[in-house]
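FAQ
Q: What does a multi-component entry look like?
A: The components come first, one per line:
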Amino acid sequence: MRNTKTTEDIAHGIRARVFEHSMRNNGGYLSQACSAAEQLAFLYNEALTLGAPTLPMIPPPFAGVPAADNPDYVTGAGYNGPVAADLDRLFIAPAHYALVAYACLIEVGRMAPEGLEMFNRDGSSVEMIGAEHSPGMEVHNGTLGIGFSTGAGLAWGRKRRGESGQVCVFMSDGEVQEGQTWEAVQAAAHHGIDNLWALMDVNRQQCDGAMDSVMTVGDIAGKLRNFGAVVAEVDAHDVTALREAKATAHEGQPLVILAHSSPTQGMGFLQRRFPRLHYVRFKTEAERAEMNTAIAAELGIQPIDLGVH
Amino acid sequence: MEMVNRPYARAFEAYASANPEVLCLSADLTSSCEIDGFRDRHPNQFLSLGMAEQNMLSFAGGLGLAGFRPFLHSFGVFLYRRPYDQLMASIAYPRRKVRLMGFLPGITTPGGMTHQAIEDIAVMRTIPNMTVLEAGDATEVESIVAEADAVDGPVYCRILRGAVPRLFDSPLKLGQMRVLASGDDVLIVTAGITTEEAIRARGALERAGVSVRHLHLNTLKPFDAKQIVEHAASVRHGVVTLENHLIAGGIGSMVAEALAEAGLARRLVRLGLRDTYAHGGSRPYLMRYYGMDALALVRAVEQITGVQTGITEDALDAVRIEAVHSALKAEAL
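Then the predicted structure of the entire assembly, as tokens:
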């Protein structure tokens, strides 16, 4: 599936959509859009080989969880295209980035803009924390740290089957605090799983605030290398650098790209909220109006019309 | 009574080697789970995941997503206590065809608290999409492999290792309990290693004039409540459950729920671990110490029937256990 926009345009569109949504809904995962916009745009627009979406552009409502008596259950993976031997698979390991991922699906023409209006609405499949049945998701990753393990298992299986498609896991740096992440890297290295790669948003932020204040994780790149991964480090907002990192040779080993990002990239106004950026809320209408004007100006768009909502 | 050495090792190798989509996963307990021979003879179907169960469970979920059917081998307790979150998110929710082969159930290990899966049935049966099986003899250990692999979803199995008695000559069939005796005074419900204890107790009880109805369960979820209620309704005095598990959340609880939901008033005595951890020791010692053996069963039957049987420990030891043949089982079951 070919896209006509540049990756930079898509990244800008992601920020604008998440900003608009957060303004209208009195809060949202703004900083994740700031840090990850180029990364998700790069994955969908360039890095991944995906087929055309197989599910309706307007997401259908929640249709039940997997169960023996729910034979029609499907995951949201169809927004990434069909499952095929030559196509890539993507897991969004930090499911809290769902709003950003949905905005990306819209920007790359895989979901209708109406999909974002269903975000976090009762009875909708477009859930706040991406679920298996949410657009673009294939597995549950709301419990942080399990994504790379699942990706490694799937990649091992695909390699065994001789499939040419790769497995990509979009990760967050907070996940390196979970022991399972390290178990997964060592297992992927031990078994030579090299059809597996990860793009990690290293924004140095987590729910409680700056990672260094919550739990120091040290040298992530050095630790990953010691556990057996090939590591590339780039500026997360430099698409050319992302392209070069993706081309890093990693035969016999998984590749992890550390994308060093700013949690306020494109919305410098958010610096006032540092380090509490995980979920941005407004305490007063005046604050909301001020942010609306300031960030719209930074993004080069009109302030969001808040009157209709 | 015939004792069979390492029935799992042979049964798994025969089955897995004929089914290339079955994978054998181990978490550093390969010999302990009797899959060392399989590892040596079928290295391409064997994956060592090391002492890292959290990753192993999510990794297995990924293998399931790729269309494989991984059999995870470890001590039962290591398959759910530490990696419970991974069990839920990566295996149970998406209904991956992952087969969790839990060795050393309950007090069958001298390893003490850290090694004894005493609440695994309670945990597993409350997990949506999960099937729970328990092998009670060598024949069931042999047949549980293919039966578990036929399930469209995840399965947890309590597996016996080493020298295992052969009690049954027909294979385990999912959802089919065994009716081992059809008396009408008291109903005894057992599973796993407690069935052998009940067979021993039954011999003595019948000689003392107590008519016993005895059910052996191998499918703990789905649980056939309807049949349990029918059997309970057909005995005069009441029901005794004996399980290698805490009495809370396991077979005793399942039977209690079944009777209560059916509105059937029968006395129920639940034998097993009573809100306590066990400690390390031999299986006979632990079964005696925690009131989970044939003698405890006899005393519970006496309590329910009001009959003083005069059965002693020596009398129980003298009971010879014969293989249970098909003729003793109701054909419909």
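Q: Is there any commentary attached?
A: Sometimes. For this entry: Chain A has one domain: 7-55+75-299.
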